[in-house]
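Q: Structure tokens for this one, please.
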Amino acid sequence: MTRTRRILDHYDRRIRPGRASFEVLDWSDRDSQLKRFAVLPANVELDGKILLDVGCGLGDLWAFLNAQDISVRYVGVDLSEKMLCAARRLHPDAVFVNADVFKDVVFPPGAFDVVFASGVFNLDLGNNRAFLPRAVRRLLDLAGECAVFNLLHRRAAVCHEGYVYYDPAEVLKDLEAMSCHVTVLDDYLDGDFTVICRKVDSV
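A: Here is the predicted structure, written as tokens:
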């Protein structure tokens, strides 16, 4: 099964009328989803910036930033057109694009100030460790300033089958050859951590 098919099979079947967005996106609860979102504006200047939300799902990040009165030019991109149809109904003022940024040339290099990816590396696709550095290079290519993503932490009390849990030290090693300053934040949830990659020329 291809990477795309595996992701679509997992998420498209979760879209049901009346189902909470965090459940559709396979997060354990709403609070943990919001804590992941909160790491971004707490550590990266977003006001007046252009933001790409990779794997945007139902556009929950857009709603979160609006609720925080953060003025950002938002673009959400997702593999699932079914997911985006629901996102457009929920957030008609947001911009959503159906594409795979890791293989499709949809946006030019540096088109966005900040690129954010929440949960996109969680599903076990068989080659996550090898794919992650390649994916981060693509996120950085699209970002003028920084790329931010979160990962499930290996220290999680319960590790569920079908997901990948990462060691921050190993991730840092995987990214050390890249031309960016890397910061790891792992103090907001026990089972999660966020990586901020700031491009050298923007620091």
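A few notes: The chain has a mean pLDDT of 93. The chain has one domain: 3-202.
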